Amino acid sequence: MQENKIIKLTVRDVRFPTSLEQHGSDAMHTDPDYSVAYVVLETDSDAALKGYGLTFTVGRGTEIVVCAVKALSTLVVGKTLKEIVSDFRGFYRLLSSDGQMRWVGPEKGVIQLATAAILNAVWDLWARVEGKVRNKPLKTNTFECSILLKVVCGKKNRFHTQMLKEGYPAYTTSCAWLGYTDQQLTQLCSEALAQGWTKFKVKVGADLQDDIRRCSLIRKLIGPNNTLMIDANQRWDVNEAITWVTKLAEFHPLWIEEPTCPDDVLGHASISKALAPLGIGVATGEQCHNRVMFKQFLQAAALQFVQIDSCRVGSVNENLAIILMAAKFNVPVCPHAGGVGLCELVQHLILFDYISVSASLNNRMCEYVDHLHEHFESPTIIRNAHYIPPKDPGYSCEMLEESVQKHQYPDGEVWRAIEQQGKQ
Amino acid sequence: MQENKIIKLTVRDVRFPTSLEQHGSDAMHTDPDYSVAYVVLETDSDAALKGYGLTFTVGRGTEIVVCAVKALSTLVVGKTLKEIVSDFRGFYRLLSSDGQMRWVGPEKGVIQLATAAILNAVWDLWARVEGKVRNKPLKTNTFECSILLKVVCGKKNRFHTQMLKEGYPAYTTSCAWLGYTDQQLTQLCSEALAQGWTKFKVKVGADLQDDIRRCSLIRKLIGPNNTLMIDANQRWDVNEAITWVTKLAEFHPLWIEEPTCPDDVLGHASISKALAPLGIGVATGEQCHNRVMFKQFLQAAALQFVQIDSCRVGSVNENLAIILMAAKFNVPVCPHAGGVGLCELVQHLILFDYISVSASLNNRMCEYVDHLHEHFESPTIIRNAHYIPPKDPGYSCEMLEESVQKHQYPDGEVWRAIEQQGKQ
Questions:
Q1: Averaged pLDDT for residues B21-42
Q2: Exposure b/e, A65-83, CB count within 10 A at least 16 = b
Q3: For residue A125, is pLDDT > 50?
Q4: A71 touches chain B (CB under 8 A)
Q5: Is the dihedral of CA B81, B82, B83, B86 positive or negative?
């Protein structure tokens, strides 16, 4: 391939005012404004190829991630794609182990989110270069699927063929955010059932009586055979989690997600042990900051569902390691998605898991939330509650330039209008 | 007390070019420039009282912490000290659990370092307010010790009297940075012995033969009865750590510090178990990002020495919790210090541990590094290899304004001069 030297990195703070309508609200994040630090890599290639990447945030603090991306950019600009992918481990370590910057991580928090944004863009660029052409569906590609998938999966197999036909099973979190009224919940749930959804997640953890009422309502709506999951977003202590979830056991949730502090590995192990007799598993991962933490959770039998995230850890590189560890421990991977761009990104990873690693759909599904897809060049395609494999080259997170400009914080027109309203 | 409303927060990026002489070099941080994000809180009090706080970094990346401090400052400015300290838990949670900003942590990495800088300044302010007068030693204070210690320790006791007389035992890391030559090491070690030092730490982990030569040299210099510790700064995998340290066992180190990735709780447990028969303990903590992670290490018997850090976790608040947990698990606390300002800060915490919690000096000592103290208004006082309790009111990290201005990055005169030299 061409050298494809990266000659420029730009990063922008893009925020969507989702808190205005309580989309995404949960027990710990009561007013999220879904946001991204959005990275574009420019190259010196003949075709002026670019790489697009992002990391997800929920509003305030995005500017800190943007600052971190700028700090890391000096390690990226000037490198060629060829030298990066010929020693991708070395490049990963260069970003994560800079002798000075690693102190403010290492491999966690802001600096890890920034690393993810950059590496997501590098993977996108690599896939586009492999695909050669930009912004055109690859109609003649024998893999019949996104070039990113081809890069990670290698040869086509029967699981790949099955995915093209049926898609990967999804569940929806769109019906039951914590801030929604019972009426909203009923309406959204009924609509989702009509669209073919069979797996539903409910936010819990703020008030037990509310949770009982909401879980009862949704279980009645979806019936006994559909799947229900509950998600506390870290709200509880260990014992509180066990007591609380025991009281929701009658609604037969498949898992309790993020029952307590994401760093409390042994706490999750205690919760797992206590809830196992009730047939309820523990799911976590969206705030698990690197492969080493996932290793702790797997070794301690502290989770029964591995929720990888496309932006929390170091991009595809680190997620491949986590997917392989999960397979070794025989624990299903059920990705975290939603927010903005997370569905677009993580679909590639879970398809890789199925096609090349697990070859199983048992207890496996990928989260889906129906917000903000309209801002992407190649939005996710859901058919009959399944993710349809993307065909455009790349990592699917190129945003519409118009959307980016409108939502840039604080100067985009959306935010200027909100500021104006605040003043009135 | 007065309300003492916080009316302004300033934060500056202050860096010392320590990498020029290899001070602070270790197996993972080969070129640290000791730095701080330096916070000053201004109040509306009659006496124009200020609070001074900092968080420690090693150069690049400090600007990200500065950005995070600015983001958090909106939660601090406008609050009165009275309302903060009357519900300090609430204030701590306000900083660490902001519904939007917690996503980029939570309680880890950049945002946690920024939280520490701010809270260190709040504790400093509180102690100064309690002390009433600023910049004058409290000659008539019946506690005969810093007002910060009085705030946390409460009443004077015999352990406090003992500390005033003897001081708290320290060990030195100044003699054997990885980048020092054998000649430097020999000279520094001989000088330290002459000054009364009895406990020495050596950096290891880059090259086994080098380590054997260096440990052999220092053990010969200090003799069989003085204490030797070794520190790998996370360089190894788990099995590599066990093999490597086993080969250094003949030099009888008391502990191996940071043998592997700071997130690998169960890895540290394996190392602890393997090295116990050799009489070598595992020490870690300087990159352990919060109380919940320390809980994992204690519950898993993954360390035998708890190395608290004054800036990595959420200031005094979180360190008190860690000190109490360590006491419950009967594990000695041996603070991490050095860098810039860490000795000044952490001496207060280890004195609290002795005076009010552990009441034991068995296997306990506080790190000391003899760099950069000259930039502080109230530098640490070491007498016969012991920390002498500070008497000035506050948390001892007010810097000389002249030093701050000279070392501001990138515009201070020290950095402008280095840039000039680079161009020549």
A1: 87
A2: bbbbbbbbbebbeebbbee
A3: yes
A4: yes
A5: positive
Place of tokens 């915490």: B349
How does DSSP assign A304-358, residue by residue?
Answer: SEE---TTTSSHHHHHHHHHHHHHHTT--B-----TTTHHHHHHHHHHHIIIIII
Q: If DSSP codes are grouped into helix, strand and coil, which group holds residue A385?
A: coil
- Choose among B393, B390, B396: nearest CA to B129: B393
Which residues 14-33 in chain B show a CB within 8 A of chain A?
Answer: 28-33
Q: What is the ipTM of this complex?
A: 0.95
Other C-beta atoms closer than 10 Å to the C-beta of A419 total: 11
* SS3 assignment, position B422: helix
pLDDT for the residue numbered A155: 77
Decide if B226 contacts B198 (C-beta within 8 A): yes
| pLDDT tens digits for range B142-173 | 567 787 888 788 878 899 999 999 999 999 99
Q: Does B321 touch chain A (CB under 8 A)?
A: no
- DSSP H helices in A175-237: 182-194, 208-222
Question: What is the distance between the alpha carbons of residues B15 and B416, in angstroms, rounded to a whole number?
Answer: 12
The pLDDT assigned to A27 comes to 74
Residues of chain A with C-beta less than 8 angstroms from the C-beta of B58? 99-100, 103
pLDDT over threshold 60, residue B135: no
Q: Is the pLDDT of residue A41 over 70?
A: yes
Assess B115–A contact: CB distance below 8 Å, yes or no: no
Instruction: Considering chain B, tell me which residue range(s) the CATH 3.30.390.10 domain(s) occupy.
Output: 6-139+400-413
Closest to B233 (Cα-Cα) out of B196, B202, B187, B210: B202
A residues 229-288 closer than 8 Å to B (CB):
234, 261-267, 287
Q: Is B105's Cβ below 8 Å from some Cβ in A?
A: yes
Residue of B321, B330, B390, B383 whose CA lies nearest to B360: B330
Boundaries of CATH 3.30.390.10 in chain A?
Answer: 6-139
Chain B residue numbers touching A29 (CB-CB < 8 A): 99-100, 102-103
pLDDT at residue A138 greater than cutoff 70: no
Which ranges in chain A are annotated with CATH 3.20.20.120?
A: 147-388
Beta carbons of A61 and B101 less than 8 Å apart: yes
Residues of B in contact with A109 (CB under 8 A): 104-105, 108-112, 289
Q: What is the assigned CATH class of domain B6-139+400-413?
A: alpha beta
Cα B80–chain centre separation? 28
The residues of A annotated as belonging to the active site are 203, 336
How far apart CA A121 and CA A4 sit, in angstroms, is 14
The model's pLDDT over A218-270, given as tens digits with 9 standing for 90+, comes to 999 999 999 999 999 999 999 999 999 999 999 999 999 999 999 999 999 99
Per the CB < 8 A criterion, the answer to whether A79 and A7 are in contact is: no
Residues in chain A closer than 8 A to B266 (CB atoms): 295-296, 299-300
Mean pLDDT of A331-336: 98
What pLDDT is stored for residue B132 in this prediction?
66
Length of chain B: 424
- Domain A6-139 class, CATH top level: alpha beta
- Does residue B139 register a pLDDT over 70? no
Closest by CA to A230, choosing from A247, A207, A248, A243, is A248
Q: Within A224-283, where are the H helices?
A: 238-248, 265-275
pLDDT at residue A135, as a whole number: 44
CB of B113 within 8 Å of a chain A CB? The answer is yes
The CATH number for B147-388, chosen from 3.40.50.300, 3.40.50.1580, 3.20.20.120, 3.10.620.30, is 3.20.20.120
Q: Which residues of B carry out catalysis?
A: 203, 336
